[in-house]
Amino acid sequence: MSEENTDKSTFATPTEEDEKKKVEILELWSQDRMTLLTWRPFLGMLSMHLELIPVVDVRCQTACTDGRRIFFNPYFIGDLSSDQRVTILAHEIWHCALLHFSREVGRIDQHKAWNFAIDHEVNSLLKQDGFELPAGAVLYRKHIGHSAEQIFDMIVDGELPMEGMIVDEHYIGRPDDEGELDVDDQKYGPLVEDGPEGETRVKIDSRFLPRRTDDVWKEWRENLKSAAQRCGCTGVDLSGYGWAVEDLLEPKIHWKELLRQFITPVLTGARQWLPPNRRYITQGLYMPSRKRDLELKIVIAIDTSGSTVGEIVQEFVTEVTAIVQSFGAYELTLIQVDYQICDIEKFTHEAPFEAEKFMLRGGGGTDLRPPFDWVHEKMSGELPKALLYMTDGFGPAPSSPPNYPVLWVLNDQGVPPCNWGQIIRIE
Given phi > 0 = left and psi -120 to 50 = alpha, else beta, which region is 193? Predict the structure, then answer.
């Protein structure tokens, strides 16, 4: 696109008519929330943790959530029936309840496939719970009850097509530098308007301020437990929610998921929102821009003193690589250590880790301090985003934490080597 055309692009704010529409539909959808509270108390209780915010903004054509708020286009919601509005509300709640924020990490490079997978997971629950799904909504009927991860794998492997309608928007918090969003102002309300002298004006609402925070998944764990317990005390039947509620009451989180939950905040914290990207505006496209670090540096330390199994090390490093590569350029420094550093290798997005070529080195006594000393000596000018340490924990560790996040990765018999850092167990 030429610079001349880009210069004719401008932003507009919601009109007085838009503001009236926002008030009208907010009241209507708030009433629908009370209906949900009566009809499906469990979901109704969960909805109270989400603020409803109407916005007339080209970035939010339908509805979306950041885990604390539901932003919605009042023109879109206003055109729905009462049953459909309740369904959309429940749909957004389940995205939060099922922790889709944290579960996407490692799959962001296949974001479209993940969108279909999580919508299937949500719509499966809604269908089984008696909700009226929008016509054409994503639902693989032969696979109702399958998790988003299972559906995602089948889509990526070509076993399932990406067919059906995504009923909301999932782009909030993506690590992409830029995105594109088709705008149909006739369908979704007056989001784009023609200005004088051929200008294209897109509406930007000051209330559309999504914020993805690192600990939102923790909040939802607590929200879910609280709602489930309250429903249990009042005799509300939760059996229709199947595995979703069972896992909430007795969560069994795989170490790979915990690993994602640790790494995601580390990497997303390296990004920031930039002013709107004007490049797409005259095409009827708008998304916020993002700034990414030139390179994300992660250190992995492997204790090879005798308790480490090669296969699990390979799986661990492969999983870390899959997560960080979704965020662009990276450098992984792999340090093998027993009582001293035995080997150091570096892997990048251009020369990634290859599990089949990996060999454990060392096997002597145990001292957990050398990798921290190495970082202090060799990376003092640019500290790593995090250090991930796979060990059984039996050995001396630094007495105080460094100035970067540390994750201790322990086996089922391992013990925390100190009173700082975070811990996950690989069993």
Answer: beta
Q: Which of 117, 56, 62, 53 minimizes the C-alpha distance to 85?
A: 62
Number of domains composing the chain: 2
**Are 232 and 317 within one domain?**
no
CA-to-CA dists, residue 105 to 173, 390, 394, angstroms: 11, 21, 31
Phi-psi region of 299 (alpha: psi -120 to 50; beta: other; left: phi over 0): beta
* Contact yes or no for 359/378 (Cβ under 8 A): no
Highest mean pLDDT among 194-198, 247-251, 281-285, 291-295: 194-198
The torsion angles phi and psi of 236, rounded to 5 degrees, stand at -75, 130
Instruction: Say if residues 343 and 335 touch (Cβ distance below 8 Å).
Output: yes
Q: Quick: pLDDT tens for 121-167.
A: 999 989 988 898 988 899 999 998 888 888 999 999 999 999 998 88
| Residue 275 within a domain | no
Q: Give yes or no for a contact between 341 and 370, defined as CB atoms under 8 angstroms apart.
A: yes
The one-letter amino acid code at 379 reads: M
Amino acid identity of residue 271, one-letter, is R
Are residues 237 and 329 located together in one domain of the fold?
no
For 199-305, strand residue ranges (E) read 200-203, 272-276, 288-291, 296-303
Q: Give me the residues paired with residue 52 across strands.
A: 70
The band of 75, judged by pLDDT with boundaries at 50, 70 and 90, is very high
Percent of the chain with pLDDT over 90: 39
Cα–Cα distance for residue pair 226/217, rounded to 1 Å: 14
